[in-house]
Amino acid sequence: MARVSHLLLHLRCGRLSSLQIPLFGSPYNLRLTSAAAVAAARGFCSNGSSVLRDRILLLSDNPASIATDDKEALRSAVSPLADQLLALPDGQDLAAPLDSGSFSALLLCSPAGFASVELLSRLKSRPLLALQVFNWRKKLADAGIPMLPEEYSKAITLAGRTKRVDLAAELFFDAIDVGLRNACLYNALMSAYMYNGLIKKAVSVFEDLKQGFNCKPTIVTYNILLSVFGRSLLVDHMETLLQAIDDSDLSYTITTYNTAIAAYVTAWMWDKMERMYR
């Protein structure tokens, strides 16, 4: 928070061009001066007085709005970079847009790392490109900007979409090895396996999560497994899972209902479909 407050203060005073942000761990420090500062500010400022900058300044006057408004500000800042990357042809070197310094600066803004999650989301239509960006992002983690579980989760899902399930599993274990154990990682790997028709592996990941101590299945986890069973017409397994949700402290979401209804329709179980709808 101190670093973010420092950034907001300099933005308020209009002195971003002289701001020094330690983007890399010792002995590497990046000084944002002159052209580098302009590049870093590009995500925040347009013609010297951006609406985005005004919104960020507003956050310092209204702390209660930080959680929502700061994310919206970062989304606006990430959007031009996403558009620039999506305009590149396949195989293009990403160094120019990513090494400019602006995205590195955004990674440090609160909530830290959110900009990367947002960028990967915006690049999902080109999963191979998104995975290239993720690999670049990992280099910054080695240099002192920690990764989020959600970043790995996005990359695991993207790997599944490209049918690279081995890569999805590799990324999952990489995240676990660096101490980022989180239910979202299990959910992403289950989704990758489900997308590629590997039902047994998806169920195995679920069982591993159930036996864990540091994190437990969420309703998203159950929804994924419901979808796995529903697509395979394993209605008995699906109903056992629904009972497990009922016996837990979790609540159905609209996805839970829709998934069960779709499974009953596929299995021609009209009465059960109607009961679930009601």
Structure summarized in a few sentences:
This protein is 67% helix and 0% strand.
What are the SSEs and their pairings?
Blueprint: H1 2-13, H2 34-42, H3 51-61, H4 66-86, H5 95-98, H6 102-107, H7 114-122, H8 127-142, H9 149-161, H10 165-177, H11 183-195, H12 199-210, H13 219-231, H14 235-247, H15 254-266, H16 270-277
Helix pairs in contact: 1-3, 3-4, 4-7, 7-8, 7-9, 8-9, 9-10, 9-11, 10-11, 11-12, 11-13, 12-13, 13-14, 13-15, 15-16
Features:
278 residues, disordered N terminus, mRNA binding
Walk me through this protein's architecture:
α9 runs antiparallel to α10, α9 (149-161) runs parallel beside α11 and α11 packs parallel to α13. The chain has helices spanning 2-13, 34-42, 51-61, 66-86, 95-98, 102-107, 114-122, 127-142, 149-161, 165-177, 183-195, 199-210, 219-231, 235-247, 254-266, 270-277. Residues 1-66 have low confidence and may be disordered. It contains 16 helices and no strands. The chain has 278 residues and is mainly alpha-helical. Among the domains are: 1-116, no CATH class; 218-278, no CATH class. The chain is elongated and about 60 Å long.
